[in-house]
């Protein structure tokens, strides 16, 4: 069991994300320790649950921290942690179309669709605190963050937030959302913003900080401005984070991550958001193409724990990757010798 095998590692991490979905379903169904479905999805790999992330708005479980279980490993005569296996993994689920949690899940979906940012969500704050804690405890090189769908959106933005602090953790993002920027339909974002405000007006008031979205925009604008003046000094040390993205060409939520970077109408209309990247924005992009598939199949998590996938690995100039990660990559081309692998 060596997690340096990329296919094996992908399969295991996908199983960990499935465990988070089941943790919430176990909670909703009031399953006992004896009947719970989630534990087998991490115990098989000698990990243990050390923290559940709870959405304070509805009490639902949206994430979990799993850590290497040395005692369980020794009991099964596994003397050392497998090469490449992280000491801790923060995993985040996506939207669950179930009554008890769908309202809050959809609220965050709309938040992303409207602003391409999840920083204002209480889930962002909880995930960031959990990831920072385990990174400080074990060292960032021994920690991984992963998510599916909406959870991948959170994982991307939480991982990026730590990367801005010079803390680089391994990141695995399955079917990451990209709707509002991928489809070049700016009016969708406007409608989603209106819908989100209407939804918020129906909810009890909270102290949830909504200014974070504006602050992120200001932060990006400041970084761009500083980068123009000081060159690489404004982003020194922020060029090493290379997340792994797993996309399916038949999934309209994430398939546009494969679109090459180029001069498009959207880029022209959003110059302040895109900005020059000199082609250095990079991610390991794993693309699965099985021909035409139904959306639920193409967007499903279960496809990713299969051990016989035919995936194409591409590190390309994706316009969506550039837009998501541009603030981490502003070194002049002369300062970079090769792309990270």
Structure characterization notes:
It is a single chain. By secondary structure, this protein is of the alpha/beta class. The protein has one domain: Rossmann fold (3-Layer(aba) Sandwich), CATH 3.40.50. It contains 13 helices and 8 strands.
Gist?
The chain is of the alpha/beta class and 341 residues long.
**Secondary structure: number of strands:** 8
Rg, Cα atoms, Å: 20 Å
Q: What does the largest sheet look like? A: 8 strands, mixed
Poorly predicted runs of 5 or more residues? 181-189, 206-238, 263-279, 331-341
> Helical proportion?
40-55%
Question: Structural class, judged by helices and strands?
Answer: alpha/beta
Average pLDDT metric: 75
Termini Cα gap = 23 Å
CATH second-level architecture? 3-Layer(aba) Sandwich
Number of DSSP helices? Answer: 13
What are the main properties of this structure?
8 strands; Rossmann fold; 13 helices; disordered C terminus; eight-stranded mixed beta sheet; 341 residues; alpha/beta
Write the layout of secondary structure elements.
Blueprint: H1 6-28, H2 40-43, E1 47-54, E2 61-68, H3 70-75, E3 88-92, H4 99-115, H5 122-138, E4 143-148, H6 150-163, E5 170-174, H7 179-182, H8 186-201, H9 212-230, E6 244-248, H10 265-269, H11 271-274, E7 284-288, H12 295-299, E8 311-314, H13 319-325
Parallel strand pairs: 3-4, 4-5, 5-6, 6-7
Antiparallel strand pairs: 1-2, 2-3, 7-8
